[in-house]
Design goal:
Strand content: 15-25%
Distance between the termini: 16 Å
Shape: globular
Low-confidence stretches: 143-149
CATH architecture: Alpha-Beta Complex
Strand order of the largest sheet: 1-2-3
Number of helices: 6
Helix content: 40-55%
Oligomer: single chain
Number of domains: 1
Number of strands: 3
Bound molecules: FE2/S2 (inorganic) cluster
Order of helices and strands: HEEEHHHHH
Largest sheet: 3 strands, antiparallel
Length: 149
């Protein structure tokens, strides 16, 4: 049975920023092909700063904690700063995840990046063809999954 940090348990039991933003500026939805879990991030942006974040996650406890932490970390960041968020940085803020749950941390940073890219495309500041392909997103996920074997 995996052992979770107090921070993970806190964010799992009392997730922050659950829900949906009406008229969100950007929406990012990702799924984990390994387990079938889904995560959607909604962002509000003002002057290239993320002013609000909400999420809906259908997934395991680790994925819920990751969503909650990633949403907290993203608030107040510039788009450029938020794009630097990685699964490892979210997992570190959660004081770690058991190795066999580390793949769950991929979804948070991916969903956030998708929401930002959706915003930039809507703004005409990014070409749709430059949006991060799904295969690249899942490559990391599968790699982490592979480590479990
Ligand atoms: Fe699916 Fe955690 S088991 S994201």
């Amino acid at each position: 049975m995996p052992v979770y940090s107090q921070v993970v348990m806190d964010h799992f039991m009392r997730p922050r920023n659950v829900g949906e933003i009406e008229n969100a500026d950007g929406i990012g939805e990702v799924g984990n092909p390994v387990c079938g879990d889904m995560m959607t991030f909604y962002i509000k942006v003002e002057n290239d700063v993320i002013t609000d974040v909400k999420f809906k996650t259908f997934g395991c406890g680790a994925a819920i904690a990751v969503s909650s932490m990633a949403s907290e970390m993203a608030k107040g960041l510039t788009l450029e700063e938020a794009l630097k968020m990685t699964p490892a940085s979210v997992a570190a803020k959660l004081e770690g995840l058991p190795q066999n749950k580390f793949h769950c941390s991929n979804l948070g940073a991916q969903a956030l990046r998708k929401a930002i890219e959706d915003y930039l495309v809507k703004q005409g500041r990014m070409d749709k063809k430059d949006v991060t392909p799904e295969e690249d997103e899942h490559a990391a996920c599968e790699t982490e999954e592979g480590k479990e074997a």
